[in-house]
């Protein structure tokens, strides 16, 4: 009866955090909206378990990379907790992204030229 | 950040998190309702499925804010405490069991710590050493290994040695204290000036002896022990620089040592040296610079190594010294070699073995306790099977459950450890009271930080040990199977009964090993008591008289005193016979000397014929109850003008005249000019311990003795009634002759024997009580397993009875189960006991390590205990009503 709740873990460590930060850089959002956003942007390729977002959010909160605030959502009229990226978060995201690009390049070189054409 | 504030802040964070996740689920539910047109209930299920395991996610989110392990451990702890409160009797049983185990181990450890591990209580103890003279390589006399030094050695070493920063000589000696009521005999030591600086202990009051005071003519100074100062001088500090009277001379008190300083002590030095139980005073040794010829070798040395000098370097220095002395002092050629022993090792002596024996026994008990508790927890974990299953179903990982269970075990262990420390504190006090005097540094035993640290460590190990088996058992369960089984009693998980049986079998095996060991020790003890010591210890009073050398300067005056004292003793009402001797049995070793048989030729280089040499009086053997095997006792007429006579013991007769009659043969000791004729043969008398194999010994009458050692003699009185009824009369008889002669060490021969046996008795009692404890625990273990299996097999037994099984058959079935378990345990235990036997050999006397009687008796005993423990469950099984048993399911 074990559910496969390791799907988020099968991403590499830090991937989920990076995606959350990138989403928040574009637009502050609450948890539910973040999940929607990530799933849509990935064309449903990443089947992230919705809940697995929350531990990641707590980690980011603790590192002060994001901050959170309770407000009333204008669209659904619900009480929602909206996350914003902080200045530290922005800097962190830049670093992570550049590290990630290096990593991707490296992997691409190893796997063979032409297979991953640059977009 | 203040952790306290942080915890408050964290509550808000958790609340936010919970609300946020709740809102998420609601939003999702509503979206699903909108998009897919499901009912709210259906949508809620779908939303939860998409969300994942909410409980686990929430826990993981919270963990972000926690000191990860610490806090979840706190959670586990609180849960564990709830578990304990739910079953208080169960928890209490386990805590008590563990307390008993951990407490006993801790108490024994504090003993080991005091006797063996803790550094001796002197500054920088690692550089303190005792160099002993050792015999020439080709000679081994009676197994003695350590010999005293000659003053010539002392002077030579003081002149040249570079290894020692300080070197002190010391020598045990007794002093008559007069001028304070009844004369008293004090046990002291003569020490050279280097003695105190070497030990490095400063006097509490006053000062040490100076180098100048350690010279003939200046030696009338004394340093007192704290105990003596308090008991005899009311801790009066004005005593300093005043005189006290020792051996009839005035000694100036120059110092008082700090409390607890009593070096040298008899139980810290080799057994064949004479030192005080606790040295009470020190006087300068004042060795003359020129050593007279034939000065006897009787000095012990204490050395403080130079900083940075290793033991090996110091030994090397002593080896060079030996070579040089061999050249410069040819008379003692071969006798200049030495062995340097660290003081720590010297003080512990060979007390290590019995103490470690006791430690092993108590470790076995702790192991049994662990297995016992593991068995109990296992039963309980079976009862909690559903709880674990549900937890696993809710997403608790194996590691998580394992950790929870280990936390519970550790909580129990630490509760047990706390109880154990209480038991240990009481135990140490008990051991101090009951422990034998022969055990060095026993009174230093205490439950200090080191001991607590040990208890903590043991508790931790114990908790993991007994917690691991049931925890692993619980984690290994198959989730689906367990859930399907539901509440059914007939468990299919067969691994648990097997594990439980294994635990019980090990308990029985361990208990058997321990009981065999204690059985062998008990037999040893009674064999020793029954062994022939060459005397009868009942109805014998002994005491010591020491004649002050000022009033009794020579042999004639000393002999005159005893010639008056002996008839006085014999005329006391209630005294059957009286005698005097240099050494009472069980009072310690006697003198040894060279004895040559007249008419035999001795070659140069042959080992000298050494025998024990004891000066006695007529009547001694009948007072001691020593049988005269042939010939006669000494007579009052055996005086100096009469022909010299000697009595020998059987061992000497056998060694020197194996095929001849020794009576009438003549022997000579070095300082005698006239040979003595052997007039009697007596049974062998043991001197230090009932274990010893008596060596050859010869006796001479005090009236013909030429050695000046007679000032200190033991009086032996055989009485008709209880020995203590004549104490007053005996003291009076002595004081009638001379009121200045102290009567000391009044004791009965039975007490002396008891004291000599105290070490044996102590080991036997401790190992024995641990053995009994082990049996009790094993019995509880068997009882637990059998009653559990009866409860499990209720249905099966019901069916058997329904199908016509007789009560007796059911009863037998259960008893056989108990016997099977114990039989296996006994077999394994017997094998272990046989293997262990070799280690025990050195403790045994009159019984072999494989003594069949002990092995058979103990096996039967354990089997009987096993049957006894299965009796109750078997009766319960036999009375099972089939109708009820089957309906109960």
Concise structural overview:
Chain A is an alpha+beta fold and 119 residues long. Helix content of chain A is 49%, strand content 13%. A three-stranded antiparallel beta sheet of chain A has the order 1-3-2.
Q: Which keywords apply here?
A:
heterodimer; A: 119 residues; alpha+beta; Arc Repressor Mutant, subunit A; 49% helix; disordered N terminus; B: 889 residues; eight-stranded mixed sheet; six-stranded mixed barrel; 26 helices; 22 strands; 52% helix; elongated
Assign an overall shape of chain B. elongated
Largest sheet of chain B: 8 strands, mixed
Oligomer: heterodimer
How many separate structural domains of chain B?
4
CATH class of chain A: Mainly Alpha
Q: Determine the structural class of chain A based on helices, strands and strand pairing.
A: alpha+beta
Secondary-structure map with pairings?
The complex is a heterodimer of chains A (119) and B (889).
Chain A: H1 15-26, E1 29-30, H2 31-41, H3 53-62, E2 66-72, E3 79-85, H4 87-111
Antiparallel strand pairs in A: 1-3, 2-3
Helix pairs in contact in A: 1-4
Chain B: H1 3-36, H2 40-51, H3 54-63, H4 68-86, H5 88-117, E1 128-133, H6 151-160, E2 164-178, E3 184-191, H7 195-199, E4 205-206, E5 221-224, H8 226-233, E6 243-246, E7 249-256, E8 281-284, E9 300-305, H9 311-328, E10 338-342, H10 343-348, H11 352-383, H12 385-393, H13 398-434, H14 449-475, H15 479-485, H16 495-530, E11 540-546, H17 555-570, E12 575-581, E13 591-594, E14 596-597, E15 610-616, H18 620-624, E16 628-631, E17 645-649, H19 650-656, E18 666-668, E19 676-682, E20 697-701, E21 712-719, H20 727-737, E22 743-748, H21 749-756, H22 758-792, H23 794-802, H24 807-840, H25 852-878, H26 882-887
Parallel strand pairs in B: 3-8, 5-7, 15-20, 17-19
Antiparallel strand pairs in B: 1-9, 1-10, 2-3, 2-6, 2-9, 4-7, 5-8, 6-7, 11-21, 11-22, 12-21, 13-15, 14-18, 16-19, 17-20, 18-19
């Amino acid at each position: 009866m074990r559910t496969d709740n390791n799907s988020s873990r099968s991403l590499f460590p830090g991937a989920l955090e990076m995606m959350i930060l990138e989403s928040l850089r574009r637009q502050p959002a609450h948890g539910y909206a973040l999940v929607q956003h990530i799933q849509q942007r990935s064309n449903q390729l990443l089947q992230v378990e919705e809940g697995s977002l929350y531990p990641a959010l707590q980690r980011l909160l603790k590192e002060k990379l994001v901050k959170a605030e309770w407000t009333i959502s204008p669209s659904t009229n619900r009480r929602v907790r909206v996350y914003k990226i902080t200045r530290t978060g922005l800097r962190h995201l830049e670093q992570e992204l550049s590290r990630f690009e290096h990593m991707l390049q490296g992997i691409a070189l190893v796997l063979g030229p032409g297979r991953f054409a640059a977009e | 950040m203040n952790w306290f504030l942080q915890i408050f802040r964290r509550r808000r964070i958790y609340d936010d998190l919970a609300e946020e996740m709740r809102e998420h689920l609601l939003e999702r539910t509503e979206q699903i309702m909108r998009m897919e047109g499901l009912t709210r209930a259906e949508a809620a299920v779908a939303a939860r499925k998409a969300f994942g395991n909410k409980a686990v996610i929430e826990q993981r989110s919270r963990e972000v804010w926690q000191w990860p392990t610490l806090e979840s451990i706190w959670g586990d702890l609180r849960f564990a405490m709830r578990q304990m409160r739910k079953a208080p009797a169960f928890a209490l049983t386990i805590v008590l069991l563990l307390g008993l185990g951990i407490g006993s181990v801790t108490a024994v450890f504090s003993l080991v710590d005091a006797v063996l591990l803790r550094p001796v209580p002197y500054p920088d103890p690692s550089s303190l050493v005792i160099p002993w003279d050792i015999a020439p390589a080709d000679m081994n006399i009676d197994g003695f290994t350590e010999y005293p030094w000659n003053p010539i050695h002392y002077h030579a070493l003081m002149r040249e040695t570079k290894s020692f920063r300080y070197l002190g000589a010391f020598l045990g000696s007794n002093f008559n204290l007069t001028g304070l009521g009844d004369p008293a005999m004090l046990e002291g030591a003569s020490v050279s000036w280097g003695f105190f600086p070497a030990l490095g202990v400063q006097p509490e009051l006053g000062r040490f002896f100076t180098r100048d005071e350690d010279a003939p003519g200046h030696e009338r100074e004394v340093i007192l022990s704290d105990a003596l100062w308090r008991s005899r001088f009311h801790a009066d500090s004005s005593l300093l620089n005043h005189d006290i009277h020792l051996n009839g001379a005035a000694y100036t008190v120059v110092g008082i040592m700090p409390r607890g300083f009593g070096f040298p002590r008899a139980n810290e030095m080799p057994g064949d040296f004479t030192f005080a139980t606790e040295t009470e005073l020190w006087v300068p040794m004042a060795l003359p610079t020129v050593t007279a010829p034939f000065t006897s070798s009787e000095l012990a040395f204490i050395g403080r190594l130079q900083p940075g000098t290793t033991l090996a370097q110091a030994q090397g220095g002593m080896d060079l010294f030996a070579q040089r002395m061999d050249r410069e002092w040819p008379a003692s050629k071969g006798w200049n070699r030495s062995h340097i022993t660290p003081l720590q090792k010297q003080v512990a002596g060979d007390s290590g073995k019995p103490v470690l024996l006791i430690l092993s026994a108590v470790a076995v008990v702790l192991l049994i306790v662990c297995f016992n508790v593991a068995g109990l927890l296992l039963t309980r974990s079976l009862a909690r099977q559903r709880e674990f299953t549900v937890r696993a179903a809710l997403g608790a990982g194996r590691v998580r459950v394992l950790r929870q269970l280990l936390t519970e075990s550790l909580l129990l262990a630490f509760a047990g450890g706390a109880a154990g420390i209480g038991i240990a504190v009481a135990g140490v006090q008990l051991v101090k009271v009951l422990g034998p005097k022969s055990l060095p540094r026993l009174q230093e035993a205490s439950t200090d930080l080191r001991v607590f640290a040990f208890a903590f460590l043991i508790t931790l190990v114990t908790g993991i040990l007994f917690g691991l088996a049931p925890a692993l058992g619980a984690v290994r369960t198959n989730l689906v199977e367990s859930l399907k089984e539901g509440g059914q009693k007939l468990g299919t998980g067969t691994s648990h009964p097997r594990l439980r049986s294994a635990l019980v079998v090990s308990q029985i095996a361990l208990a058997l090993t321990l009981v065999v060991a204690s059985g062998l020790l008990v037999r040893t003890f009674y064999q020793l008591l029954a062994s022939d010591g060459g005397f009868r210890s009942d109805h014998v009073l002994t005491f010591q008289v020491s004649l002050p050398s000022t009033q009794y300067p020579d042999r004639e005056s000393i002999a005159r005193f005893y010639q008056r004292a002996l008839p006085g003793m014999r005329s006391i009402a209630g005294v059957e016979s009286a005698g005097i001797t240099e050494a009472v049995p069980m009072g310690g070793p006697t003198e040894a000397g060279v004895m040559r048989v007249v008419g035999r030729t001795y070659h140069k280089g042959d080992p000298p014929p050494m025998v024990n040499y004891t000066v006695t009086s007529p009547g001694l053997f009948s007072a001691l109850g020593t049988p005269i095997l042939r010939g006669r006792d000494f007579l009052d007429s055996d005086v100096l003008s009469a022909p010299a006579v000697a009595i020998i013991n059987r061992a000497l007769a056998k060694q020197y005249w194996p095929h001849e009659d020794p009576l009438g043969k003549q022997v000579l000791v070095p300082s005698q000019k006239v040979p003595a004729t052997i007039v009697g043969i007596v049974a062998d008398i043991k001197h230090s311990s009932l274990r010893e194999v008596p060596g050859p010994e010869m006796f001479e009458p005090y009236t013909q003795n030429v050695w000046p050692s007679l000032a200190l003699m033991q009086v032996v009185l055989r009485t008709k009634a209880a020995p203590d009824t004549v104490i007053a009369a005996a003291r009076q008889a002595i004081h009638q002759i001379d009121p200045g002669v102290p009567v000391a060490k009044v004791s009965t021969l039975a007490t002396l024997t008891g004291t000599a046996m105290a070490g044996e008795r102590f080991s036997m009692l401790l190992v024995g009580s641990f053995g009994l404890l082990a049996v009790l625990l094993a019995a509880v273990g068997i009882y637990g397993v059998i009653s559990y299996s009866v409860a499990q097999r209720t249905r099966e037994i019901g069916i058997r009875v329904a199908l016509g099984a007789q009560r007796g058959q059911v009863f037998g079935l259960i008893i056989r189960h108990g016997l099977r378990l114990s039989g296996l345990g006994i077999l394994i235990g017997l094998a272990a006991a046989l293997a262990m036997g070799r280690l025990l050999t050195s403790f045994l006397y009159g019984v072999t390590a494989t003594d069949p009687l002990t092995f058979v008796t103990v096996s039967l005993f354990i089997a009987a205990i096993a049957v006894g423990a299965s009796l109750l469950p078997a009766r319960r099984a036999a009375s099972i009503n089939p109708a009820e048993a089957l309906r109960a399911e």
